Every structure is written in structure tokens, then in C-alpha cells.
Amino acid sequence: MARQHIRVDLRSKVPAYLQIVEQIRALAAGGGLEPGDQLPTIRQMAEAAHISFTTVARAYRVLDEAGVISTQHGRGTYAVARPRKARSLALDLLVRDVLEAAARIGCGPQDLQAALSRAVGRPMGTDPRRRRRRQAPPGGDRDGHLSQGRKSPIPAPGSKR
């Protein structure tokens, strides 16, 4: 954990203690924090993040109650969550964030479920908002207009061919 830095954005609408909770859960889920790894003390983390130690203590308490870490008085704080469990917790947090974002734009859980179903059904990296450009027809442009100097294969009404 010594190489991992927890960043707290004091301008964010997300409370500082929740930012810490989410980052530590993400570290555990991503393998950056293995079971048995020691976390910084509450005061060390508070100094590094330039926040109150009570904020860090609250985050550690939430993580302890969730089973992600274990705080042993006088010995330190250690990661205890298995990576699979931590990954599941991180996914739950991600889904919660997406639900909140969807609610902010006026979408409900059913809308989100439909969007997720559509996204799962298409290959990764495809974006439905990007339309394919139509191929230009022979002798014309993409909008169906004929190039100058070329005659239409379809006679105009009233013309003799």
C-alpha cells in the first residue's frame, strides 16, 4: 500500500470518507491491495490526503464493517477481503454510481437495464451513436446526387431515351 496513494477531491460532491472507501475497495478488487497488506495508519493517511483524521477513521470503520479491512488496536490495519469478494464489492459500487447518474438524467432502473442489455448484446468498442456513413452510389455522392458530367441511368419524366 505504500506505493498506492489515496486521492481525495474536496470539491467533489462525494464525501471524502466515501472517496477513501471506494478507492481502497478498488485497490483490493484490482489486486493493488492483497489480503494481509498493511494500510497506513489513520493519521498517516490523513496527513497524506490533507484531511481530518476523523474522516479517515470513518472510512476505515466502514471498510472494517464491510469486511474489507481489519483494524487491530495497537497493531495496525490490514486488508482481509479476498480479491473475488472485493471485486464483487467494487462492481456493486460501480452499479450504484451508474444508477445515481441515470437518475440524474431522468432514467429509471428499467431504462438502465434495457441499455445494459443492449450493450451486452453488441461487441465491445461499438458505439450505437456513431452511424456508418453511406457508401456513395456509382456516379453519385453519399446523398444520392449524381456527379456533374454524368447522366442519370433513369430518364427524367417527359424526356426521350
Q: What integer is the average pLDDT?
A: 79
How many strand units? 3
CATH class of the domain at 1-110: Mainly Alpha
Principal-axes shape call: elongated
Please give the largest β-sheet. Answer: 3 strands, antiparallel
Q: Which value, in Å, is the CA radius of gyration?
A: 28 Å
Secondary-structure element string? HEHHEEHH
Number of helices: 5
Tell me roughly what share of residues is in helical segments. Answer: 40-55%
Say what the CATH topology of the domain at 1-110 is. Answer: Arc Repressor Mutant, subunit A
Query: CATH-wise, what's the superfamily of the domain at 1-110?
Result: Winged helix-like DNA-binding domain superfamily/Winged helix DNA-binding domain
Could you say which structural class the secondary elements and strand pairing correspond to?
mainly alpha
Q: Which architecture of the domain at 1-110 per CATH? A: Orthogonal Bundle
Major sheet strand order: 1-3-2
State the low-pLDDT regions, or none.
none
Share in β-strands: 5-15%
What's the N-to-C terminus distance? 82 Å
